[in-house]
Amino acid sequence: MSTHTTEEAVRLDRDKLFAARLHAARTRPYLATALFALHIVKSDRVPTMGVDRYWRCYVSPAFVARTPVEELAGVWVHEVSHLLRDHHGRGDRLARERGLTGVGDRLRMNIAADCEINDDVYGDGLVRPKGAVQPHKLRLPADRLMEEYVSGISLGPLTLDLSWLDCGSGADGLEREWDLGPDGADGLSEQERDLVRFRVAQGINARPGSTPKGWRRWAEEAFHPPQPWRDLLGAALRSAVSGGGAGDDYSYGRPARRSAGLPGVVLPSLRRRPPRVCVIIDTSGSVSDDELGSALLEVAAIARAVGGRRDLVHVMSCDAAAGAVRPLCRSEGIPLVGGGGTDLRTGFRKALRSHPRPDVVVALTDGGTPWPSARPACRTVVGLFSRPGVSQARRESNPEYVPKAPPAWARVVEIGSAPTAR
Amino acid sequence: MPMTALAPTSQLDVAADLLALLRDSTTEPRPDDQLEALTLAVAADLPVLLWGEPGIGKTAALTQLAAALDLPLTTVIASVHEPSDFSGLPVVGDDPATQGVPMAPPDWAVRLVRAGRGLVFLDELSTAPPAVQAALLRLVLERRIGALRLPPGVRIVAAANPRSSAADGWELSPPLANRFVHLQWTHDHDVVVRGLGGTWPRATLPRLDPEKLPGAVDFARRAVCGLLAARPTLVHRLPTGETQRGGPWPSPRSWDMTLSLVAFATAAGSSRDVLSSLVRGTVGDGPGLELLASLDRLDLPDPEDVLADPAGAVLPERGDLRQAVLDGVVAAVRARPERARWDSAWAVLVRALETGAPDLVVVPATTLASLRPEDWDVPAEIEKLAGTVALSRRADRAAVAAKGRR
Q1: Separation in Å, CA A150 to CA A97, A156, A225, A419, B4
Q2: Which ipTM did the prediction report?
Q3: Could you say which of A189, A264, A413 has the minimum Cβ distance to residue B91?
């Protein structure tokens, strides 16, 4: 602690604050590094406790005086969670992406971030502080991310008593007047912040058994955010489509248009061979129509963009038996037949036997299927509908359960994970 | 001619005046971490790949870098070239069977070789067709254009759009990705607004300090070897999964590049943020962060030094680092329990209590107390730690209260 804060803190009960931090660190040992990295700044302008993005923690002496130690410990963990989960960075991204720039929007983000934290950090020795926002009080489901909560929150009667709520710029990205800013004393640089988050994640990954599910998920994703599946599916498909043997490339098969001006020089010319794409859709009961619809639209759009010609995209529905291969000529709906168990092997066989043969096969599936034992004679992209809830439940009821993973020769893109979450 | 001289100023002249006014801007010095990282990587003669959306000032940055390094800049827009522009144009001579077909290099390459030095900027790598990219990579990695070989004074920087916004299938295969230093290029909102208002930033570029060179190499070797000796699995790890595709990953080659970059950043006295983007851009996020974390530990005082001189020990201000030092001291006593070391550790804890937050001291104090054999007396210093005992009791009471309220 630097000297100026100790001088100012005449009325701040630091011992109470530190006893609370000790209790928090004892009940959540994996957060100790982060809790100890926070730098305390006494402030009479914060309503309760708040953080900024430089890992300073602003504390109101009056709030400390009136709050019991066990509740203060909960507030410590709450505030540090905002920083570990990068709520300010995610808030900034939300503001950019969805144009949420008003003060009210930032308050909604703060509430949404609080909902994300409060539904899973308390209990097990840690008391929920009085007045903490809970999703069910706003008639929202539990276990969601800040990004998902924001759109469900409107400032109205339900949030009326929350408008005092303020966890500082660390919670939503909006600078507060009491913030010391980037040049103030004792802030952590971006690299130092990353390192604290990294150490906490490492600690959790080293001892996952004793850590709640929400934090384990955070630790797994802290430095490997969920995949932005639209972008990845597009990139995988474009790459498969434009590799050697398909798409635009140079060839010496015909003289180049520059040849006339350069006698004696041999030049290649640009040839276009549009790729043929076959999309196999898993229509077994477990994939919802909405998911299929969104993924199929995406594939069709990408394939059209790279191939140039719609008639080169074919679609086939497949459960235990493969349906007919149809060209995607019209923009209206594609008939999806099926509903039973899945065996994509028949789909692959049928796709590879069709004439003309496809250059790329795209399989959209939830993965509950046997796969071809050998690499098919064309590039393969698998769009995998992730089922974290289902596989989690299966894993818990049967520890031996291992989901059938797609084979190594396919490029796999997980579809349906939240694009902006960390 | 006299007609135009008498006529009122032509519209084009007025337009030229207006343009001159628009271009009249000043510069101000401003630290720029990404430009500093780029400069260090170029100075270390490593191929750099800038990832960034189109139109965010990559070319402007390269112009500034070339001026700072005093190198003539050659920009090659890859997408408007053909593969033969880089691999050489086959020119059929009189008797190809005996003389062979020479691969003629393009004019800009000839000029570069004649000048002996320069900065080649391969722009828009991601929008070029695969065959052009293949030819370009030979230029980047082997420094060859047709029959010519670029002299060592030539530095190469490439730029690509992120995969999500790339127009076609461009992506790096793992072996190619491993040869580049990947730098993410983003624009700074404030810089752009201020620049459009007439004041552009002028980055102060890092200068290598000749006196620091041997120390920098020693430091870099210690850092990288120390980490890899303790974590052998970090040496080589092929990327898996779509998100990491085309990005940096650890291998002996990229660790070698990291070693150079750590040495260059140290010799230039660069900040950790600059080093962070360089290291993470070479071996990837996970291994890069581990290296940076171990660098932090290199900076912490050695537990044995602290034990040897508890009164003179400088403990870090930041709570988490201080906790790491105190834990290290107690661990050192546990590893070699001797009476004098035990007493000295108590002195360290008292010092920590006097200079910082008391809750940090509780756990090391409890552990240290448990290391006491029966025949050792309790030192007088323990009296001074009474406050932490009270603090610890208070936390215990809170735990009981929390249980009662569930």
Answers
A1: 13, 14, 19, 15, 66
A2: 0.75
A3: A264
Q: Is pLDDT of A66 > 80?
A: yes
Question: How deeply is A89 buried, as exposed, middle or buried, from its count of CB atoms within 10 A (0-12, 13-18, 19+)?
Answer: middle
Which residues sit opposite A41 in a β-bridge?
A: A58
Backbone angles phi, psi at B46, to 5 degrees: -110, 140
Q: Name the pLDDT band for A271 (thresholds 50, 70, 90).
A: low
Cα dist from B10 to B16, B111, B285, whole Å: 10, 40, 59
User: B289–A195: do the CB atoms touch at under 8 Å?
Assistant: yes
pLDDT tens column, A142-201:
778 888 888 887 777 666 666 556 777 877 777 777 788 777 777 888 888 888 998 898
Own/partner long-range contacts of A416-420 (Cβ < 8 Å, ≥24 apart): A416/A229, A416/A291, A416/A385, A416/A386, A417/A226, A417/A227, A417/A229, A417/A386, A418/A145, A418/A147, A418/A148, A418/A226, A419/A226, A419/A228, A419/A229, A419/A230, A420/A90, A420/A93, A420/A94, A420/A97, A420/A147
Greater confidence (A393 vs A188) lies with A188
Nearest to A247 by CA among A255, A237, A256: A237
* Exposure on the CB side of residue A403, measured as CA atoms within 13 A: 18
> Which pair of tokens denotes residue B65?
């870098």
With a CB cutoff of 8 Å and minimum separation 6, the contacts of A325 are A278, A314, A315, A316, A350, A351, A354
**pTM exceeds 0.90 for this model:** no
Checking B375-380 for CB contacts under 8 A at 24+ apart, the result is B376/B339, B376/B342, B379/B343, B379/B346
Query: Is B391's CB within 8 Å of A247's CB?
Result: no
**Could you tell me which of B99, B63, B103 has the C-alpha nearest to residue B83?**
B103
Q: Beta-strand (E) ranges in A300-387?
A: 313-318, 322-327, 360-365, 379-385
Residues whose CB falls within 8 Å of the CB of residue B387, separated by 6 or more in sequence, listed in order: A15, B353, B358
- When CB atoms are compared, the residue of B82, B293, B391 closest to A198 is B293
Instruction: Give the gap in angstroms from C-alpha B275 to the nearest C-alpha of chain A.
Output: 9
Q: In which element (H, E) is residue B104 found?
A: strand B103-104
Burial of A356: CB neighbours in 10 Å, binned 0-12, 13-18, 19+: exposed
DSSP string, B241-269: STTTTTS----HHHHHHHHHHHHHHHHTT
Looking at beta carbons, which residues of chain A come within 8 Å of B292? 191, 195
Question: Residues B387-395: what's their mean pLDDT?
Answer: 83
At A314, list the tokens: 């074919």
Question: In this predicted structure, what is the pLDDT of residue B266?
Answer: 93
